[in-house]
Amino acid sequence: MWRYTRCSKLLWCKLRFLMRCYMSNISHCNRDLGLLWWQGESPVPEARVDYEAFRQLYRDGALDNRKIQLDIPDGRSRLPLEIGGASGFGVNELVFRMEKFLKSQRMERMEITIADAKPILREIEMEKRLNLDQITKDAIMLAESDGIVFIDEIDKIVTNHETRYGADASSEGVQRDLLPIIEGSVVSTKYGNVNTDHILFICSGAFHSCKPSDMLAELQGRLPIRVELKGLGREDLYRILTEPETNIIRQQQLLMKTEDIHLVFTDDAIEELAKVAAEVNRSVDNIGARRLHTVVERVVEDISFHAPERSGETYTIDKESVQRAVGDFLKKADLSRFVL
């Protein structure tokens, strides 16, 4: 009786598996894998062979294109469209966090491939093993003790006392709103209250049209350490063009490679690019390393325009090529200083 019940159960499992294969249009797996079906003797080892065969196919990626039906939280099945530029914050993540905040348990049944299901299931299982309350508590503690807040373009909310008029007066109100946070207070966030007493605040700005002394006296007192940075010289610009792994030169080469064009910059050409950028910053307007984009684009402008017709060619940019491309660029004077 025991043998009959066990064999009947195994036979039903195998019949159900055959029906699934037929419905999924993968019945040919029996021939490809050489599956050994039970013939009345030692059924358990042969069933184990089937299991190991499919697991090996899964690990090798042979089943990645197979489609399955999966119940996943509503919002995770959306395409990972990116918003906010380089922030990397996806729409699906935003929707999932909002629904999680609202304690929504809606599930959505989707038919997706195994390759797309792997990261979703992995993330769901990881979240099940995380204690979000403890993570939030630790994050708030670390932010209060070791947090650093960098406020860039602080000069945009500072106006010169001699030219303060109209809507510019509202910038002082922004400074007054920042003052209690920098002085130290309890800020309410969606994760809880954060005390800013021991958070380091760093502010930076160009201060072209105003001076740091134009800030509120109270705000100046809460930012006691003042450091003035030097402008970028030719050597600094040359390092920016060569040392970063994805520097501007490398970016241009990869961009031209999409049109099957091999672009080569000689070392003297790179030095000339840095020299021209430093000279234009000195004579026209000092915009720092942003000037390199303008100069490099001027040099490769003609090649980029005719790239589709010149596929497969190799271009070498030397010092003379840079001088010809940016010669008139250096002769242009900044006439804005003479405009009344």
TrEMBL record:
<dbReference type="GO" id="GO:0016887">
    <property type="term" value="F:ATP hydrolysis activity"/>
</dbReference>
<dbReference type="Pfam" id="PF10431">
    <property type="entry name" value="ClpB_D2-small"/>
</dbReference>
<keyword id="KW-0067">ATP-binding</keyword>
<dbReference type="InterPro" id="IPR019489">
    <property type="entry name" value="Clp_ATPase_C"/>
</dbReference>
<feature type="domain" description="Clp ATPase C-terminal">
    <location>
        <begin position="232"/>
        <end position="326"/>
    </location>
</feature>
<dbReference type="Pfam" id="PF07724">
    <property type="entry name" value="AAA_2"/>
</dbReference>
<dbReference type="GO" id="GO:0005524">
    <property type="term" value="F:ATP binding"/>
</dbReference>
<protein>
    <recommendedName>
        <fullName>Clp ATPase C-terminal domain-containing protein</fullName>
    </recommendedName>
</protein>
<dbReference type="InterPro" id="IPR003959">
    <property type="entry name" value="ATPase_AAA_core"/>
</dbReference>
<dbReference type="InterPro" id="IPR027417">
    <property type="entry name" value="P-loop_NTPase"/>
</dbReference>
<keyword id="KW-0547">Nucleotide-binding</keyword>
<dbReference type="InterPro" id="IPR050052">
    <property type="entry name" value="ATP-dep_Clp_protease_ClpX"/>
</dbReference>
